Amino acid sequence: MEKYLLNLIKSFQPETSHFLTIQILKYLAFGMNQRNDHPSLTCSIAGLKLRNPIGLAAGFDKNAEVINAMQKLGFGLIECGTTTIKPQYGNPKPRVFRLLEDRALINRLGFNNKGIDSFSVNFNKRKKNISIVGANIGPNRDSSNFINDYLILFEKIYSDADYITINLSSPNTEGLRDIQKIESLDTLTKELKMIKDSKSIQKNIFLKIDPDSSEKDYDDIINIVYKNNIDGLIVSNTSTERPSGLANRLFREKGGLSGVPIRDKSNEVLKLISTKTKGEISLIGVGGISNAADVYKKIKLGASAVQLYTALTYEGSRLIENIKKDLVDYLEKDNFENIEQAVRSEINN
After folding, report:
1. Cα 190 → chain centroid
2. In sequence order, which residues have a C-beta less than 8 Å from that of residue 126 and are 6 or more positions away?
C-alpha cells in the first residue's frame, strides 16, 4: 500500500506531493503503532537522550503538523521548521525541482510557513518523551533586522522545544548566510547565550551551517561556538554549488541542492569540523544520506546523530527501519556495543 501511495504521490509536482504527504500522515498517525528500537541504537547528543540517531531534517514538517506520525515512523530526532515570526509565502513558484537521475532535489522555497504562532500551537500537540523534537528558526525575508527576528523567535519557542536550531545557512533568503560572518554571528550568539542563561532550564542551541564556505570561515564559526557556549553544529544545509556529473537538466535551477550529490561535500565539512573540535562540540550530520552506510560514515566522522529528508521523497518511510536494521549490523560487525562507541572512530584512527 505504501509503495502504491508513494508512486501516486510522486506523480504530482513536488510541492503538491509534499502537501499530500503531510495530509496523509495526519490521517495515518492515528492507526500507526509505536516502533521499538534495538538497544544498541540508544545514544545521546549534548545531553539529550535519543532512542536512535536517525533524525528528520528541518524542511519536511515546516509547521509542526505531523510530529506524532514521524515519531511513530521511528525517528529518534525530529526538527520542525524553519518557522518565522510572521507567516510568509516564500519565493515564487515553481521553486522545488526533482533531479530523478541524481536522487536529488533543488529548492528555493524561501522559508514558506504559517508563522510562529501557528507553529507553537501545533508543536505543543505532540506526544512527549518519545523522540527529541527541536525547532528550527529563521528571519522573515522582509525583516529589517535578522538578528532581532532570531531573538524574538528564540524567546517564543524556548520553553516548548527540546532544542533550538538557528538556521544561518539557507541559500534562499537573500543576505541570510551573511549572518555566519564573524561579527554578526558573535553578536547573535552572545545575545542568545544571555537569554539562555536567564532561564531556569537550559536548552541546547545548535547552529545550522552551509557546506560551501572556506576553512577560515569554519574556523571563525568554531571559535564563536566556543566563545559563546553554543552546544552544537548541524553540518550541513543545502549547497549552492553543483558538482560535475549531474545528469538531470534541471541542475541549472537556482536554489539549494540536496540529496546524494552533496554527500561527499557534506562529509568533507563534517570531517574538517570534527577534526578541529576533537569531540568537544556536538555535531549532527546532514547531507546525502540514502542508506545505513551513509549514516554510519557520518557517525564515524564525528556525528552523534544524523538528519535526512530528500531520501524520504524517493524511498518512503520504510527507509527509516531499513537504515536502523542495517546500522545494528554495522555496529555488530565492528564490535561496537552502541552508537556512541562508533562516533569519531574514523577520526580517532
Report:
1. 23
2. 64, 67, 68, 71, 133
Q: Which residues pair with 133 in a beta bridge?
A: 78
Which residue out of 40, 131, 169, 170 is catalytically annotated?
170
* Band (1; pLDDT cuts 50, 70, 90): low
d(Cα 34, Cα 92) in Å, to the nearest integer? 38
In angstroms, the CA 197 to CA 201 distance is: 9
> How far is Cα 275 from Cα 235, in angstroms, rounded to an integer?
13
Q: Count of CB atoms within 10 A of residue 3's CB?
A: 9
- Residue 44 appears among annotated catalytic residues: no
Here the cell at position 98 is 526533482
Place of cell 560514515: 297
Residue 289 has what pLDDT? 98
- 139-161 per-position pLDDT tens digit: 999 999 999 999 999 999 999 99
> Is residue 35 scored above 80 in pLDDT?
no
Model pLDDT, residue 155: 98
Question: What is the three-class DSSP state of 17?
Answer: helix
SS3 for 18?
Answer: helix
Distance CA 59, CA 41 (A): 25
CATH class of 2-348: alpha beta
